[in-house]
């Protein structure tokens, strides 16, 4: 007789289990949606980081090139050192394909220490626009 109490009819089992598959399906869908949302957000931030990295490298190399150009203007090959007046300090907006959206500027200052003339060049370069603007500043000191 106790055996009959533990055995349920097939209809009673179905009634107790109805709706559990729906709860599991909703849980799986919500969990999958959260994973997809996290991946989308990660992909967006990775893309923005890559743009900043590329723009930062462009700014760095433009600042370095501008600094080297200033050194060539100060110390022309096979000539004596010039003064800061020989250095082009105007803001230069670059329009070539590789440097589109970039600008650079060079500043120069002179000082005499122990009867030796010292030059300090500071190069500033910016690339990008709006929220994706990167800037690099490089400096060099040289003497006669």
Spatial arrangement of strands, main beta sheet: 1-2-3-4
Oligomer: single chain
- End-to-end Cα distance, whole Å, is 112 Å
**Dominant shape:** rod-shaped
Tell me the helix content: 40-55%
Number of helices: 3
Report on this model:
With 144 residues, this protein is α+β, with helices and mostly antiparallel strands. The chain has one domain (9-143). It is built from three helices and four strands, in the order αααββββ. The protein has helices spanning 2-6, 10-17, 20-74, and strands spanning 92-94, 102-113, 116-127, 134-143. Strands 1-2-3-4 form a four-stranded antiparallel beta sheet. Strand 1 and strand 2 (102-113) form a beta hairpin. The radius of gyration is 34 Å and the shape is rod-shaped. The model has no long low-confidence stretch (mean pLDDT 84).
Summarize this structure as a short list of keywords or feature phrases.
4-stranded antiparallel β-sheet; 144 residues; alpha+beta
In short:
The protein has 144 residues and is α+β, with helices and mostly antiparallel strands.
Helix and strand layout, with pairings?
Blueprint: H1 2-6, H2 10-17, H3 20-74, E1 92-94, E2 102-113, E3 116-127, E4 134-143
Antiparallel strand pairs: 1-2, 2-3, 3-4
């Amino acid at each position: 007789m106790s055996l009959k109490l533990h055995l349920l009819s097939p209809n009673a089992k179905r009634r107790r289990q109805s709706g559990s598959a729906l709860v599991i399906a909703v849980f799986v869908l919500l969990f999958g949606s959260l994973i997809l949302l996290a991946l989308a957000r990660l992909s967006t931030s990775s893309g923005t980081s890559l743009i900043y990295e590329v723009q930062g490298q462009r700014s760095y190399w433009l600042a370095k090139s501008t600094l080297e150009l200033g050194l060539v203007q100060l110390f022309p090959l096979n000539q004596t050192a010039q003064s800061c007046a020989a250095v082009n300090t105007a803001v230069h907006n670059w329009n070539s394909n590789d440097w589109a959206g970039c600008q650079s500027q060079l500043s120069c200052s002179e000082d005499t220490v122990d009867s030796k003339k010292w030059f300090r060049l500071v190069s500033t370069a910016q690339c990008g626009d709006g929220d994706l603007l990167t800037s690099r500043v490089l400096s060099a000191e040289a003497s006669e």
